[in-house]
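Researcher: Next sequence.
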Amino acid sequence: MRQVSDFKKLLDGYRLVTAEILYRMPDHPKLLQSYIWQDFDMAPKYPVLGKFLDFWNRELDGPIHSVTVGTRRVIHPSEFVRADFVATIH
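Model: Next structure:
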């Protein structure tokens, strides 16, 4: 399978998503531990984050307490300008 470049993902509407996952320690369930996850994902459904959380619930022992998601478009349409002319001067 061909990997899509990060730049292509940004142009397709992906955003850089950061999630703070609070989970309970398996041996000490009253204690919470924090894990920071970051990847490119599509708002508002966040399928990449959803797959990661499914993996977490299936494979890891620490039950998730809460997930806080922060996101921002990395490239805005007003910030992306196509160049009509490129020249090199020596």
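Model: The mean pLDDT is 84. The beta strands are 15-24, 32-41, 64-72.
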